[in-house]
Fold these 3 entries.
Entry 1:
Amino acid sequence: MKHYREKTAVILAALALAVLPGCGSGKTENLDQGMALVEQLEYEEALKSFDAAVINGEDSQLAYRGMGLAYMGLSQYDSAVSSLQRALSYSDERPDQMDYDINYYLATAYYKQGNLDGAKGVYESIIALRPREKNAYYLKGVIELVQGDTEAASADFDTAVSIDPQDYDLRIDIFCSCAENGQQELGQGYLQTVLDDEDSKLSDYNRGRMNYYLGNYDTARNALESAMDTDSSSEVVSLLGQTYEQLGDYNYAASVYNNYLSQTPDAQIYNQLGLCDLRIGDYEAALTAFQSGIVMEGNQIMQMLRFNEIVAYEYLGQFDQARLKMEEYLALYPDDSKAQREYEFLQTR
């Protein structure tokens, strides 16, 4: 079983650029507090700060944008849509980067509602304004995959890649999206093309990860080992370790992670080490790894780490603790359907 990249689906929905003036005053006290609370997942408190920002005459567009993000965190997508549309009502006639930013968030809210046609329409609107917006082509293609229109999706992926042929992250995103929607063969082509070109400038890391996602693990390992000679970043270490896991050498994979962590604490590597320890059957070590990642402030995979911590407690047979942690988790991430099903299971133990 291949391990595809964990990524957040960012889908646009409705491009509603109203021609109304902004009314910001330059004050940002409540806005800053609200955004800090969003980052801390304190969404209810964040909403109070954004309401205060509007009342106190702070930038209305940013305030309603913040409300939209908070409502999304609460899985209240109707309210998120209303707030984000309100934010767009403060746009100038010529859209700027903030308008596109808000529309990306608005799209996510619409996508969560299942409004795929609306999302697709937004991509088309953005492409009309920015014909070389590769992310819009890619995300439009993702929607078409979900809708079962593989031909249209392929055309949009082709366009996205043609805009920036050496954006290997984009190619991997396309592959993962295809694989997740039952079109793995389509996605493989975007990676295989890179290898078939035999570009001498292709780095060992990129050669390694193309082969990893294609399932060529021996070749990937060799390339990534070579990459380690000049680049011992967490990205290289993580993928090298995962390659050894795919080859069945979990103990060596764990040593790769541990060697890196002994010098540089990193939440992503702690998470990967924990997953590796779970496969080995060392559940105490896995729990320690996940918790070591959780205490690292500002990491971008907190949700993943918190869920995996619960899994470790389950493997240890500590179901009361797992249930308690799951209640805390669902308070933070209420729309995680997998976690909701797991909570139902925990309530029976």
Entry 2:
Amino acid sequence: MADAGYPWWLALIMGIIMYAGAGQYIAVGLFAAGTSLWEAVLVQLVVNARHIAYGLSMMNRFKDAGPVKFYLIFGLTDETFALLSSLPENENPTQQARFMFLVTLLDHGYWVLGGLIGAIAGSLLPFSTEGIGYALTALFIVLMIEQMYRIRKPGIFIISAILAVLCVILLPAQVSLLAAMALALAFSAILPKVPIPKGSDT
């Protein structure tokens, strides 16, 4: 954010109220590119749609959490989900809710503090971030490869990649990303369903 010319305190606010790592990285690029609000909302929804699945799988654990329930839902990131979903069932719902709240609060606090330190350092230190933009793309490529190995049916990934390239070539830049996502979702809906491997916890 500092490299894109935004004030350091905006990173703090984003970390507190947005709290979505990939979403925050993407948001900076969308802001800098002058993307419309509705395009940004749709991109964020698609990027963070996995949190819906996380939330649905945690409904039973969160149902007796009382007043902290909504914060637990808000703070359910990849890492927090990995920690909370591995907890054994506790007969004392109040105790378990308190523990889940503290884990979520610590994860959120670490994220906000790290973002704040990075933003202040980026504002004060002469550091060029040129070339570091590959990191987020590399992250998503690694995640995609892991999914391809797990599912062992690369068809949807190959089709999505081809559609993305075609949309970039044939459509204006403002709509190419949205069109590629819409087409990939449409194709994934009509492809045969992939059975979940035996012994899988997903």
Entry 3:
Amino acid sequence: MMILRSAPPSPFGRKVKIAAALLDLSGEINVVTADTVDPKDPLRGDNPLGKIPTLVIEDGAVIYDSRVILEYLDMRAGGGRIIPKGNLERIAAQTLQALADGIMDAGILQVYEGRWRDPAKHEQKWVDHQAGKVSRALDYLEAQPPAIAGAIHVGHIALACALGYLDLRFNGAWRTRYPKLVKWLDGFAARVPAFETTKVKPA
């Protein structure tokens, strides 16, 4: 059985869990909660970066980051399931995934600024810089929400997880400004039950 080292709030770990569900691979993965700040956690032995998600497959080989893990899972499931086979379609899906991953990265950096720095040392310019990335990306996506009528792909999964992370860590403030994306996410959730089952409530 594969081992997925992750943490419930991680949007990147959520990507992997949703992908596994779509590919009927959830039963082949044991999800183990990892502590990224604990030097004794097995995570660092598997991934020298100490980052989640990290996937350990049956022969002991280790795969990271989430984009590579999703590619491996798609390959394991036969290929072409969540990563389109057509060249242009694959590039479009991967580009959307990169944009959504960027939203998650920028959101996490804002959270870390508040979590890791003393309040007196918070750098608002840095927070604003990251928030700007999120706003520009959401503006772009609101203007042209990705089609979701066909097969669900890695870009869709990543975008859903990015919006879910904004709900989790930023109280869903994005929703009032981006009604088309709200509708898009509702459509994704209706088609992908794993989106709800992987949801984490704010602490």
